[in-house]
Amino acid sequence: MTAEAHDVDDADIPATLADPGALRFWGAVLLTGVAAGIGAALLTALLMAVQRLAWGVPDPAALTDAVRAASPLRHVLLLLGAGLLTGVGKWLLARFLPGEGDDITQAIWFRAGRLPTIKALLSSVLSIVIVAMGAALGREGAPKHAGAVFGDLAASLRKLSDEQRRLLVAIGAGAGMAAVYSVPLGGALFALEVVRGQLALRLLLPALAGTAVATGVAAFLIPNAPLYSVPIYHVGFADFAFAALAAPIVGLWAVAFIRLIAWADRHRPSGWRRILAPVLVFLAIGLLSIPFPELLGNGQNVAQDLFRAPLAPLALLILLPLRPLCTVVSVASGAPGGLFTPSLSAGALMGAALGLPWLHFFPQGEIGLYALLGAGAMLAATTRGPVSSLVMMMELTGHARFFVLPMLFAIVIATLTARALEPRSIYEAPLPDDHFAARLRTRNGCPRTAPH
């Protein structure tokens, strides 16, 4: 089938309730928010149940300590099991549900937002299970994809136009992320700026409504509280200087991560290798996790530890390349999962690593603050969402003032650096070259023909 690109046009989105079809559209927005919230809650409950069974603790924040206390044999068997489950699951999905993939970006830009419902939902369940078992991928990937599917279904149920469907799918993805991390404002901005690629005022109100409903619905299981516990750092001139000087390096780090993810996606296995590749990759990660338990899970614990207190320098320098590499090879093995939290943790590691020599010249600085600035800059540079990244860091930490100015410096410089060298975001990395070229031309306001 020929993928048809489209020109971004928000004129089809009702501006007021008096517009034709407004009630149908807003009904679909509310349905998407409710379904995304329920989906995020159910997937989180599944994550907690599997993680309790696997590691003895349901709370994702306690995973690293549980892994550290587990026997080496448990590391190997659980990761081997996760690899086997991934391989068999992906083979079954390809065997019995062939056809279009479930990538959200491709669906929005080249299939009018249409997603393979059963395949995407089953892949989301597989993703959340292997993350609970220790896969080095983000747990937000599952609720994000489930929310996108619910947006597609709501658009079909309410008989919306293709343009409205595209927006509903983006809102559903943002609502799933908002619900699982309790970031309603950041989730709405993420839906538009990153997923939809159009941060327009006309689209903001439905996005906010969808993420607010989803977060409220999921609150019966997911606490409406900051994901990270962060002290209030006292920011001085030296910290602004650090943000400005470290940001280009974080931007380069983001470019390397995006290109590695693009390479990994192009080298996903097929045929019988679908089963063998994840088994070998996850077994290797399981063995590495015996001395380095921080390699397992979505990276939340790594970032949290860095925000509160410095890691030992040797451990930090080892984890700096090894932790992102585990995510890359997991993607290359065909494992489904998110990239948001792994990107954040990779940025925190780089910020902390750059902070170590900086403290020799400015000992009054704080490694935790440098890790925080690195995390925000990395998110912005990898997602190409500077506004949503800043807001998400505020919501994820529960702080909205003390780090805003230095983080703005870091976000702007890191994003400009990354854009100068790599036009793709981490979510655009899987796009074929012709598809990405078509999206890039539209994003830049240029006319283009459909890719073939």
What features would you describe in this structure?
The chain has two domains: 22-218, Orthogonal Bundle (Clc chloride channel), CATH 1.10.3080.10; 237-443, Clc chloride channel (Orthogonal Bundle). Helix content is 69%, strand content 0%. The chain contains 18 helices and no strands. It has helices spanning 22-55, 63-69, 72-96, 104-110, 117-133, 141-157, 162-181, 184-196, 201-218, 237-266, 273-288, 300-308, 313-332, 340-361, 367-383, 386-397, 404-421, 433-443. The longest helix is centred in the N-terminal third of the chain and has 34 residues, at 22-55. The termini are close together.
Secondary-structure element string: HHHHHHHHHHHHHHHHHH
Find the structural class using helix and strand composition: mainly alpha
Largest sheet: none
Output mean pLDDT.
91
Q: How many structurally independent domains?
A: 2
Q: Calculate Rg over CA atoms.
A: 21 Å
**How would you describe the shape?**
globular
Count every beta strand, where a strand is a DSSP E run of 2 or more residues: 0
The CATH superfamily of the largest domain bears the name: Clc chloride channel
Report low-confidence residues grouped into runs of 5 or more: 1-8, 447-452
**Alpha-carbon distance between the termini?**
9 Å
Strand content: under 5%
- Please estimate the helix content: 55-70%
- What is the count of helical runs? 18
What's the CATH architecture name of the largest domain?
A: Orthogonal Bundle
From the 3D structure, determine the CATH topology of the largest domain: Clc chloride channel
CATH class of the largest domain: Mainly Alpha
